[in-house]
Amino acid sequence: MDEPSTVELPDGRDLSYAEYGDPAGRPVFAFHGVIGSRLLWSLCDDAATDRGIRVVAPDRPGFGASEFQRGRTLLDWPADVCALADHLDIDRFGVVGFSGGGPHAVACAHAVPGRVRGVSLVSTVTPPETREHADPFNESVLQATKSVPGFSEAAFASSAWLAENFRPWFEASLVASAAPPDRELFDGPAGETLLADGAEGFRNGPRGSACDLPLVGSDWGFDPRELSHRVDMYHGRADETVNPDLARAFGDLLPEVDLYLTDDAHYSTLVANRGEILESALT
């Protein structure tokens, strides 16, 4: 696993990132999930190279090697992305968000619409307006992360500890909680990358995930119905993390959307459609 590049942000924090694909290609900024890191997007390296796309994959604050940001909101993220883009001499770019990265991609389109070329969402977490369609157990956990002090950090602490001290147990827990199409993926060539991605997200403990989950599950701070961009959404019918009814409800909110439903699950939707997902962020 290569060490990431880093950039110092205007407030003095370090933001880590990696690049994949064609270094001279059309830029797409790609955002990982609530459990994850920049390493997820290494799965797109060949597809990006073939399509002349430069993938820039930052670790959000508290994930991977990025410094934690206390009190972060969803709308703080576009400033970090723009600072990284300026550092890389990138003016306009597409955005792709996977799972918990989806709200962060939408936040960029809302906050800096002139810099965002297109928006592609994969297995995305959806806004609070859609939560009536959520799985009751998943929704109860989400609500607890928002309302019970210390719950969110405690919920992720065991995963972070296992990732650091008992890596095989950590990996087994990820596989065991996956839907059948994703379990098959973990057993294949992509599995090693997905497991490394999950562990790297906890490099500096649980605080990144513990902040991220209640953040994306709370009010986003803007109305996605006012988005000026068309959004392409890719979602698996077998997704048990964010069920497809949530994706449909989110699509109904957006002013212009193309929703592509596949027979895949949470991670496998990304892996099976990675080339198209990257391309759709540039249109």
Structure summary:
The chain has 283 residues and is an alpha/beta fold. Helix content is 42%, strand content 17%. It has an eight-stranded mixed β-sheet, with helices on both faces.
If you had to describe this structure to a student in words, what would you say it looks like?
The protein is α/β, with parallel strands linked by helices and 283 residues long. The protein is built from twelve helices and eight strands. Helices cover 42% and strands 17% of the residues. An eight-stranded mixed beta sheet has the order 1-2-4-3-5-6-7-8, sandwiched between helices. The longest helix is centred in the middle third of the chain and has 15 residues, at 151-165. Helix 3 links the parallel strand 5 (93-98) and strand 6 (116-122).
- Write down how many β-strands occur, each being a DSSP E stretch of 2 or more residues: 8
Helix content: 40-55%
Strands in their spatial order, largest beta sheet: 1-2-4-3-5-6-7-8
Show unreliable segments.
none
Classification by helices and strands: alpha/beta
The secondary-structure element order is EEEHEHEHEHHHHHHEHEHH
Radius of gyration: 17 Å
Mean pLDDT score: 95
Determine the strand fraction and express it as a percent band: 15-25%
CA-CA gap between termini: 32 Å
* Gross geometry: globular
Number of helices: 12
Largest beta sheet, briefly? 8 strands, mixed
Strands, helices and their partners?
Elements: E1 5-8, E2 14-21, E3 26-31, H1 45-50, E4 53-58, H2 77-87, E5 93-98, H3 101-111, E6 116-122, H4 136-147, H5 151-165, H6 167-176, H7 180-186, H8 191-201, H9 207-217, E7 231-236, H10 244-253, E8 257-262, H11 266-272, H12 274-280
Parallel strand pairs: 3-4, 3-5, 5-6, 6-7, 7-8
Antiparallel strand pairs: 1-2, 2-4
Helix pairs in contact: 2-3, 4-5, 4-9, 5-6, 5-9
